[in-house]
TrEMBL record:
The keyword Cell division does not apply. GO terms for biological process: GDP-mannose biosynthetic process; polysaccharide metabolic process. It comes from the Bacteria. Keywords: Isomerase. Gene3D superfamilies: Jelly Rolls (2.60.120.10), Spore Coat Polysaccharide Biosynthesis Protein SpsA, Chain A (3.90.550.10). GO terms for molecular function: isomerase activity; mannose-1-phosphate guanylyltransferase (GTP) activity. Residues 3-266 form the Nucleotidyl transferase domain. Residues 337-439 form the Mannose-6-phosphate isomerase type II C-terminal domain. This is Mannose-6-phosphate isomerase.
Length: 456
């Protein structure tokens, strides 16, 4: 069996910690077995290792998430990177073609697609393993995993059974996010919450692409990715199949997609600098800012603060934040990258259109920024911590705390951290956007081969 983890979305329901650059699965708000803060993606990857599925797993994601995945899981996790976000069917199709044409996986191989962020026990992934023999036994076109509902939720999709057997469920149809009244009826029909797991023979997707006249070679499909329909796997594939079976998972399962559900699984009521009075009940503070947050006499409240903003919400109202943010457009103020992180400290636009942007940038020891240049901006770096090797127009010099480095527009530059390195970057120019970034080399070994070392 091959495993495809889908990692996408922007997670606006967990604003202000999540944004267009940092989805909910990367927020380090859970606690691992060692008592350290961990993200959802770190938790799931550890669970795959626990049941020995990690060696057969790949992650399908977008360019914007590659740095965060490698930062949290390491450089050796196999990734399928979409050229653009299109929906779950294109993402799964690209992964299927990769398995078929690059890894030479048999068309008879079972592929299981999972979301990257379920909050479950290890037993959930052992249940995933059972989908392979189930499909072989029943000769079904698709296998799913459902959870017996604990209440009539309007937040989840439902798997409606045709017949319940001793080992599995024959599926009749699906019901997407019903009203609570309709959910009551579904519970009476023994419907299951849909966990978003799909298992199928690789041939199912490959044949569909052939029928559509789309390539089944990986590089060719990458080049024609924009021709794939922008549609979910549910609508494009699942609803057109006739023989679908499901396994019932009896263990713990939860979607941590809102502040209300997420705080239920946090090991502490305070993350970051904060104080909660003794008469406050069921109140949580999640604070990424370097200033304290205090809560007095509050009940059922979440206070979340990050460089992107501050949210104060009653817990059951927290899912509505996505509606409130419609039309609100702001560049991400904090991003994790493969080399570390950066935080936007200040920005301004002046009367002549000239812009200023100030960042605090942290690079982990041994990591490096790519060798790059910018067309529209000048930069000044003030090193405030650590030591590194700085390269400017093919010359490498050592730098340390206290050094000031000036980088004019179109000058090629990069840096490697010898020890943990921090600097303040002040950008000036017009149209200060992340897209004004042209890479010459990404890896330090290539930079060393190309440049000469200058000793101070």
């Amino acid at each position: 069996m091959k495993i495809v983890l889908l990692s996408g979305g922007s997670g606006k329901r967990l604003w202000p910690l999540s944004n267009d650059a940092r989805s909910k699965q990367f927020l380090k708000v859970l606690e691992n077995r060692e008592g350290l803060n961990a993200s959802m993606v770190e938790r799931v990857w550890t669970q795959l290792k626990n049941v020995k599925l990690d060696q057969s797993a790949i992650i399908a994601t977008s360019y914007s998430q590659v740095d965060m995945i490698t930062n949290q899981l390491g450089q050796n996790v196999p990734l399928i990177v979409e050229p653009e976000r299109r929906d779950t069917f294109p993402a799964i199709a690209l992964a299927a073609v990769y398995l078929y044409s690059v890894q030479n996986v048999s068309l008879e191989e079972i592929v299981s697609v999972l979301p990257v962020d379920p909050f479950v026990d290890d037993a959930f992934f052992r249940k995933v393993k059972e989908l392979e023999p189930l499909l072989e036994k029943t000769n079904a076109e698709l296998g799913l995993i459902g959870v017996k509902p604990t209440y009539p939720s309007s937040k989840y999709g439902y798997i409606v059974p045709l017949k319940t057997k001793s080992t599995h469920v024959d599926v009749s149809h699906f019901q997407e996010k019903p009203s609570e009244e309709k959910a009551e009826d579904l519970l009476a029909m023994n419907a299951l919450w849909n966990t978003g797991v799909f298992a199928f023979k690789l041939d199912t997707v490959i044949e569909l692409l052939v029928e559509k006249g789309l390539p089944i070679k990986y590089e060719e499909l990458l080049n024609r990715y924009d021709e794939l329909p922008k549609i979910s796997f549910d609508y494009e594939v699942v609803e057109k199949l006739h023989h679908i079976v499901a396994l019932t998972y009896q263990g713990y399962w939860k979607d941590l997609g809102t502040w209300n559900t997420l705080t239920e699984e946090m090991a502490t009521n305070i993350l970051g600098k904060g104080m909660i009075s003794s008469d406050s009940k069921n109140t949580h503070i999640v604070n990424e800012l370097d200033i304290p947050v205090a809560a007095l006499g509050l009940k059922d409240i979440v206070i979340a603060a990050s460089p992107d903003g501050i949210l104060v919400t009653e817990k059951t109202a927290s899912p509505r934040i996505k509606e409130l943010l419609k039309g609100f457009d702001q560049r991400p103020m904090f991003e994790e990258r493969r080399w570390g992180w950066y935080q936007v400290i200040d920005s301004a636009t002046y009367g002549d259109g000239q812009e200023m942007l100030t960042k605090r940038i942290s690079i982990s020891a041994g990591k490096n920024l790519s060798y790059q240049y910018h067309e529209s901006r000048n930069e000044v770096w003030t090193v405030v911590k650590g030591e590194g090797d700085f390269v400017l127009d093919d010359k490498i010099i050592p730098v340390r705390a206290g050094d000031v480095l000036r980088i004019p527009a179109r000058a090629k530059h990069g840096v490697k951290a010898v020890s943990d390195l921090e600097f303040i970057e002040v950008q000036t120019g017009f149209n200060l956007v992340e897209e004004d970034n042209y890479r010459v080399f990404e890896f330090w070994e290539d930079i060393i081969d190309h440049c000469s070392v200058v000793r101070k």
